[in-house]
Amino acid sequence: MTQIERAEAARLGNFGGAFDWDHLVQEDRVHQLLYTDAAIFDAEMRNIFGGTWVYLAHESQIPDVDDYITAKLGLRPLIMTRDGDGIIRALYNRCSHRGTTLCRFEKGNKRSFQCPYHGWNFLNNGQLRGVPWADGYGQNPAKDPKFNLAQVPRVESYRGFIFGTLNADAPSIGDHLGPIRKPIDQWLDRNPGGKVVVCEANRIKYKGNWKLAYDNSGDGYHVLYSHRSLLETENRFADETAEKGMSYYKTAPDEQPMYMQYMGNGHHFKDKRPNLQPRNGGLWSIESLHPGMEHVAHKLRTRFGDGAEALLDLAGSEPVNINVFPNLSLLGNHIQVFQPLSFEETDTIWYGTKIEDVDGTIGEEVLNDINTLRMRTQEGFPNFGEVDDVTNFEQIQRGLRCQEDEWIYMNRGLGIPGRIRTLEDGTIKAPATDEMFMREYIKEWKRLMKAEPALTIRREP
Amino acid sequence: MAQPAHDPSRYSYYVDDSLYSELIADFEILRHDDPTVEDGAERDLFRGLVEREARLLDRLQFKRWLEFYADECLYWVPSTPNGGDPRREIAVMFDDRRRLEDRVFRLSTGFAWSQAPSSRTVRLVSNVEVFASENRDQRLVRSNFLISEFWDDETRTLAGWAGHRFRKIGGDWKISAKQVNLLVCDQSIRNPSIIL
What we know:
The complex is a heterodimer. Chain A is α+β, with helices and mostly antiparallel strands. Chain A folds into 2 domains: 54-166, Rieske Iron-sulfur Protein, CATH 2.102.10.10; 178-448, Naphthalene 1,2-dioxygenase Alpha Subunit, Chain A, domain 1, CATH 3.90.380.10. In chain A, 30% of the residues lie in helices and 25% in strands. Chain B has helices spanning 17-29, 40-58, 62-67, 97-108, and strands at residues 69-77, 93-96, 120-131, 138-151, 154-169, 172-182, 189-190. Chain B has 4 helices and 7 strands. Chain B is α+β, with helices and mostly antiparallel strands. Chains A and B meet through strand 13, helix 9, helix 12, strand 19 and helix 14 of A and strand 2, helix 4 and strand 7 of B. Strand 13 (197-206) of chain A pairs parallel with strand 7 of chain B, so a sheet runs across the interface.
C-alpha cells in the first residue's frame, strides 16, 4: 500500500492571511499585486504549482532505465527518474533524513542516489536502501517507509510530455488537457511517427513575474511592436523575401484567418496556420532566413523535386502557440517551459526538438540535413524575438512599482458584439489580438487560489 | 553537386555538412593539451588580433567588426560545455555571415528593445595561446575572456574562453570561425543580446 501524506505546511506556516481574490481579479483587469506580492507568489507555488497538473519533463530526456534529470515542480527540486521497472517517477530531491538535496547534477544514469551529507542511500524508485551504522537507530530506517523519499503522488504522461501534481483529486492528465489535446496531437503528428526528441535548449532569465510570460504566450497584440526589430530584420531583403515570419501581423491582424481559442482549465491556443497556403512547402515559404537553408533546399530539391517541400516543412517553424497552464508552451518546434524563481524572477527554457526517422523512409543523410536546419530555425526566435519580449516583461515589473496605479488591463475585445464565440465543446474563439484568453485563464487561476487544493506527497511502502 | 554562384551576405549555400564536420574537428583541437606555438612574435600577432576584435565590439563598431570576418564565416556559441554537435543540438547562437549581419542590422533598427539603450561593455582578453598548425594559412587561437556588461542598473560578468580560427585571405588574417564558450552556456542567461 502506497503511503499518502497530507501536507500541513499551509496550515502551520504564516502565509499572510486571506486575500480578496474577487477584488484582485475582475472581469477586465487584475490587481498589480498578482505580479508583485511575495505572499501571493508563495500561495501560487502551493495552489497552482501544486494544485494543478504541471509540466515536468519530456520522456525523451530520460529514454533508458536508470536515466535521470533534475527538474522543478514550482520551486521544489525534483529528480525525474526512470526506475529499474521503467516507471517514470518525480522524486523530491530532498534527503528524508535532514533535507539535503541528493543529486546536484542535471542529468545522468544512476540506479541509486547517496546523500553527500550522511551517506543515506536511496534507490531511484525512492526506497531507502540503507544508512551508515543503522544500529544507532532503534529500528533500521531502511525498514520504515516514512524514510523513503517523498515523491509527486500523481505523475502521468501525455504522448511523451510528463506532468505531475500534488493534488490527489485531480482528473487524469488526458481529461485535464481536454480540448488542447487536439492541437498537441497535430503538433506531434506532423513529425514522423508523431514524435519529437528534446535536444538542448535556449535559456533566458528575466527579472519579472512568471505570469508575464504566460500572458504573452497567447498575445497577438504585441507582435508588431515588441518584435518590430525581428520583423524588420527577417524582411530586410524586401525585394524578394517580404512576408517572412510573422509578417501577417502587419496589417489588420484581426481580419486574418488566424484566431485565438480558449481551451478550458487555463489552456489556450493561438492558431496561425490558417494564414498559410495549404500546400507542401507553404510553411517553408514563409520561414525567415537561416544558416544553411539555401544549401539544404537546393540539395533536397535537386534530389527529390517536388517531394522536397514536405521535407523542408519539417524544418519550418509550426505557426502555433499551444499554451498549457501554467508552465508549458509549444510554439514553432520548441517546447518552452516557464520556471518561476520568485515573484520577480523567471527562467524561460526553450527546449529544441528534433525528429527521428521512425520508419526508415527518410534516410540518415536527409534526416541529418533536416534536423540540422531545424536547429538553426529554432535558434532564430530566442535570439531575435524573445530578448525583446523579456525586456518588456522586466519593464512591466519595473512599471508596477508605481503601486498606487493599481490595475493591469486585459479588456481588449470584451463586450464587442459578435467578436467572441463560444463553441459547442465549450471552447471560446476570438480574433488573434484579443485578450480573451487572459481573462479566461486568470479565472482558472482564481478558482485554484480560492480552492486551495489539498496537497499530498507519496512514499513507497 | 554544383551550386549556384552566391553572395554569402545574401544566400547561405556554404553551410553544409562538411563545414560542420570541419568546424567541430578544428575547435576540438583547442580542447586538447597539444603543444602551442612558442614563438613570441607569432603569439603577439594573434593576441593583437583578438584584442582588436574585443575593442571593436566594446566600441560597438559592428561594421568594422564584420569586416574582420571572412566572407564565409561562422560564429558559434554552444549550449553545452563540451561544444557538442550543432547538427544535433540547438546552440545559444550559431550564425553564418548573413545571420551575423542580421544581428548587426537588428541592433541598428532602433526597435531592438533589449539593446535600447545599448549595453556598455569592457572585455578583458587573456591567456592567448596559438596552436600549431600544418597549414601556414590557418591558425587556431584559444583565449580567455571576461566581459563586464553594464545594462539596466546592473553590471554583470560573462566569462569563458573563445576559440578563433584565423585564415589568411588575400594577405590578411581574417576570422573564419569563432566559438564562444560561456561558463554559463547551459544555464539561463539574462538578456543575451550583446554580440560576444
